[in-house]
Amino acid sequence: MGKYIINGGKKLYGTVDIQGSKNSAVAILIATLVTDGDTVISNLPDITDVDNCLKILSYYGCAVKRESRVCVKINTDNIRNRTLPCNLIKKIRASNYLIGALLSRFGACELPESGGCNFGSRPVDLHIGAMTALGASVKGGGKFLECRSGLIANNIVFPFKTVGGTVNAIIAAVKARGTTVIENAAREPHIKDLSLFLNSCGAEIYGAGSDRIVIYGKNKLTGSLHTIDYDMIEAGTYMIYGLVTDGKIYCRNAPIGEMQSFFSSLKNYGANITVCNDSVKTEGRHMRGCDVKTAAFPGFPTDLQPLITVLAGISEGHSNITEKIFSNRFGYVRELEKAGLRYNIDGDTLKVSGVTGYSPSIMEATDLRGGAALIGAALNARGRSEILNAEYIQRGYSEIVRKLAGLGADIEFQP
Q1: Which fold has domain 22-227?
Q2: 381-395 tens-digit pLDDT
């Protein structure tokens, strides 16, 4: 149970290189289970969620070889279906993606009780519904799914957009017999990245990134080479860190096209944003409060909601932060309150009143992005802060101490 120690109040300046996308990486790593042969994946983020995905693949019999810190080679020729231990399941939300992968590969799977961050109900009903549409049956009192004769293509219509459900449906349908159409599909960038990877393995997926995805099932997929796209959430996090420290940060390799809604919100707060090729520069003073509402892509991303709250907390006036994706994603604000955040919660809206600055304090991370928000408050506060439960933050941010120190922060990690 490590912690970060931050002596805040220092302006951050310089360039930070953005990592590969966490959300793409975990989906693509699990999707290798439906391929045969060797796959080489590069630009992986060096984070514990990736480490845990690789442990899951190894448990199923994949030969996993680290080519470098950000590149891995995976061979799936000798995989076998096994019951995944709880200690691996509960570490990562992406264990849900095993439903589609194992059904496709073996015709059976035990439904995992997935882990990750706890911010409200995230049921697998829509995942199971997609699998039953493809011919699977629920067995064992709802604990198992089976389709021993192989999945059969069908139309899948989601009642509302579900990122995980869309990912699972794609992984399952790529080898189903016939043509599958996914209606009301989620449009997030990592769904497009997953589809690009599977297409490089021989799949035929069309329309990823739109509301309607068409998949022509194939008997066999072979391994391939794939480079993970860059992480818009990490880029947005460092942009916020620059603003809350009154600094100037260049994010290199930021996925500019995916971040337009986030850019618009920052501009409403008073930030100056300059885009040049694959880099974005952020600077700004005298931030002013405004309203933000999370939405499915291409709307404002829920994963950046805790970070924008940190900015709202030191912006002049009032901000209303409305969370429309998850039912309980304001848990982190009780920790920010220790640093001086002034707020009240009205249903799905967090009402924030700006203060002149945060106070140094000891705060406890309770989830990944909320933990990143606590770091933002500590960077702003003049004095020594501690962020406990650093392992939550390590799930999604590669080398955060080295990167922040390179920008001028006084930060260290203590195990």
Answers
A1: UDP-n-acetylglucosamine1-carboxyvinyl-transferase; Chain (3.65.10)
A2: 999 999 999 999 999
